[in-house]
Design goal:
- There is one protein chain.
- By secondary structure, the protein is of the alpha/beta class.
- About 40% of the residues lie in helices and about 15% in strands.
- The chain has a single domain (about 25-320), classed as TIM Barrel (Alpha-Beta Barrel), CATH 3.20.20.80.
- It has an eight-stranded parallel beta barrel with strand order 1-2-3-4-5-6-7-8, surrounded by four helices.
């Protein structure tokens, strides 16, 4: 009988550990970065959907990273922080410049980066998700970062991006800031075309692989058959990393039946559940403009509305996405 106890204890421990991890973490970006009421709006969003989110996606400018207060606030409320770290000096006015790849690589910002690494290190665990310079192939601020339009010379742009990424990660690790999980997140076009390959820093420098993808029209589209999402999973799943939908949103249109936001969310829920390497999905809760102007449009952009809100509530409260 006594010989069975160790095996029984191990089985119970394994079951407890499995119960402690959600199948898929669910999160959101809510409001604008500089909104003094952003915490209040985040909590209001959670009340609207009927649960606390697992991840808060907070966007931070070059020198403002990390927002220590935001990380501590999230932890006090049982959330993880994803800090989407931009290269621009001032989000409200990108014309004021950015940290260029050449300057980062040359060590111009090393003193600043060491201070930032010490701040992160002082936070301890659990680890922070850091999504550095996301959408690197189609984000306009990367013209500032590389010194030229990225798509005019992808190999050179990619080499600069990789060198800057490695410089930052190496510096943070040397400073002992190992409580970071680094998120590599191109936009959907990069996954569709294979352009992401020029920018990938390598498995030793990346912890998560992500995609940013939206339905920016008021036409009905399925998340599950979207070419970007399919290309992302086909390319990223074999790499052995956890995957995330780092940003997604869809335009609501109450005049349409079915509503495009509702269809996008319902198909996203099923896609994530049937693609097990996706471990997180984050909504973009902000007004958005239609990709093509439509004077008759009466929806709320990417903000959840009507049946779209109900579809998100259903996903958020599905046991597959619940914290356990």
């Amino acid at each position: 009988m006594n010989r069975l106890l160790p095996s029984l204890c191990l089985a119970l421990l394994a079951a407890a550990n499995a119960w402690a991890e959600p199948n898929v973490m669910i999160g959101a970006h809510v409001g604008s970065q500089h909104d003094p009421r952003s915490k209040e709006k985040f909590e209001a969003f959670e009340k609207m959907i009927g649960r606390k989110l697992t991840i808060d996606n907070d966007h931070e400018d070059w020198a403002l990273f990390p927002d220590v207060d935001r990380v501590k606030w999230n932890r006090a409320n049982g959330r993880r922080s994803m800090l989407s770290w931009r290269i621009v000096f001032q989000r409200s006015d990108p014309s004021k410049g950015c940290a260029t790849a050449d300057d980062i690589i040359a060590g111009k910002y090393d003193e600043q980066l060491r201070r930032q690494a010490e701040q992160v290190k002082s936070l301890g665990g659990p680890s922070i998700l850091v999504r550095y310079n996301y959408e690197m192939t189609n984000n306009q601020e990367n013209t500032c970062f590389t010194g030229f339009k990225v798509k005019t010379n992808l190999p050179l742009a990619g080499s600069k991006y990789i060198a800057a990424w490695k410089h930052i990660v190496d510096l943070f690790r040397k400073a002992g800031a190992t409580n970071i999980e680094w998120v590599f997140a191109p936009g959907h076009n990069a996954w569709e075309t294979g352009q992401w390959k020029h920018f990938y820093p390598g498995n030793d420098y990346v912890d998560w692989l992500g995609i940013d993808n939206y339905n920016k029209t008021n036409q009905v589209k399925s998340f599950a058959t979207d070419p970007g999402n399919l290309a992302f999973y086909a390319a990223a799943a074999p790499m052995g990393k956890p995957l995330m939908v780092a940003e997604t949103g869809a335009v609501s249109d109450p005049k349409k039946n079915p509503d495009p936001q509702t269809v996008w969310l319902k198909t996203a829920r099923e896609f994530v559940k049937t693609h097990p390497q996706i471990k997180a999905i984050l909504w973009w809760q902000n007004p958005g403009k239609l990709k093509k102007e439509d004077s008759s449009y009466e929806g709320s952009g990417y903000e959840l509305q009507g049946t779209g809100l109900e579809a998100f509530r259903e996903m958020a409260n599905d046991a597959h996405f619940a914290d356990k």
